[in-house]
DNA sequence: GTCTATAGCTGGATAGAC
DNA sequence: GTCTATCCAGCTATAGAC
């Protein structure tokens, strides 16, 4: 008796390997082997490797925001939630041994002609930017700011993305901790 | 009579293909073909594909900073130079059709065990951070800032990196233009 | 330096039997 | 759903002749 369906196991194994080894460097054969499913079964659920990639990104986005919500659930103050974003990143980067942002990795790796993948990566980034924007709107900004609300959201978003990239390259969470300090002085 | 040496042509072609198609997706065969050199000749100059990657990153770093210096040469004011960094990025991203940061791409693409490549990528990032820091030190900061000099350099660095990543994913220079505006309000 | 041939492997994908 | 066999293309790299 299988604990999980074939589809679930394929996607779970593929997700782990895509993130750890990269999409291009992960072969169908390895996925089949580690997921312990049949070759035909994989192609039954996912007609091509690209379809597997699509499912991977979409599931990753769903989980990413679900985990983020959960992580911030105990915090009530929007400002604390905004700063908590960086703690969330630190926690995830430590857990993945500084593997970097899943979505940015795909964006950097897939060929330019895979517009579908780019679209999905872009979707996650935009959604996260909106996430930041909404938290900012919930804050009562004490004083007139140097930056507009929109630009402030942009700034936090970019600092977050930049810090994640640097943390992955330097294999250290220092950049994200610095980013949090910068965010503290901005909001 | 060859206009350029075999080594130069190999590296030029490989550089173009690595950036446009990705390192993993570019085969030795294609490099040989487009560079119009013999198979044995490539392996004579570069014993393995990894050696070619090393030379690629190193040459790219040298050129990157040389082009940056040239781009900023006409500007005398350090603040204008700092803001010019973003114009430099915009210009490069437009020229490459939003291919993203060459070094970050490699960082996202190569397997984790290629420590050499990571080291080289990290080197470029650190050098650029120092570049920003030195420009900041040349500025006479008018008022006491909310952020220390070091943190300000960090912030500019991360915004720069984040904006580049977003520009590549969104295929638009809007993020970098926003980043410049943010930088203007910070310094 | 050039050329060709080829080893040895792995890639994604298909087909057929059960 | 499972299994195995296989196609064909591509990969990195080596060897040998010129």
Automatic annotation (TrEMBL), chains A, B:
Residue range(s) of DNA binding per entry: 27-46
Name of this chain's protein: TetR family transcriptional regulator
Species in which this protein is naturally found: Pedobacter metabolipauper
GO terms for MF: DNA binding
A Pfam entry, by short name: TetR_N
Domain HTH tetR-type: 4-64
Domain of life of the source: Bacteria
Keywords: DNA-binding, Transcription, Transcription regulation
